[in-house]
Design brief:
It is a single chain. By secondary structure, the chain is α/β, with parallel strands linked by helices. Helices cover about 40% and strands about 25% of the residues. It has a 5-stranded mixed sheet. Helix 1 (about 35-45) packs parallel to helix 2. The longest helix is centred in the middle third of the chain and has 16 residues, at about 65-80. It is globular and about 35 Å long. About 20% of the residues are buried.
Length: about 140
């Protein structure tokens, strides 16, 4: 078990060969978000057989746009490594932010690696997913 802790964010990691769980305690914001990105990136590099990265969010305090940006970056890095990202025990505040920004489904859906594994022979990722048409979402939109 390893622990990282700047002033307002504490990360505690528990590793196995194929799974890493990082517990977040405190605020994921401009001052602290890089710590999570560094920790997650280091775990991805240190565990070549990693299949699942779990982020425990039960004790997550506030999260700002920098914190959201880091979660999105971690998702891109886990996808590239074919590791499934799991945001667990999400707080209502985190869920609200993810819904408002349209990132809830992206951050909580199966990772790219998992899609490749479940696709049949000769199936591309595009064949395995359903296309979603774009629609306006601004104040002038009717939806």
């Amino acid at each position: 078990m390893s622990s990282y802790s700047p002033s307002h964010l504490r990360l505690t990691a528990v590793d196995t060969e194929t799974t890493v769980r990082i517990e977040l305690r405190g605020d994921l914001d401009y001052d602290n978000a890089d710590l999570l990105l560094e920790a997650a990136t280091a775990k991805l590099a240190a565990h070549p057989r990693l299949r699942d990265l779990h982020l425990g969010c039960a004790e997550l305090g506030s999260i700002d746009s920098t914190g959201l940006s880091v979660l999105l970056m971690i998702r891109r890095r886990t996808d590239a490594a074919e590791v499934s990202l799991h945001l667990e025990d999400r707080t209502p505040t985190l869920d609200r932010l993810l819904r408002i920004t349209g990132s809830l489904e992206y951050l909580t859906a199966l990772s790219t690696g998992a899609v490749h594994e479940t696709s049949g022979p000769g199936e591309s990722r595009a064949d395995a997913e359903e296309a979603i048409p774009a629609r306006p979402t601004g104040p002038d939109s009717s939806a």
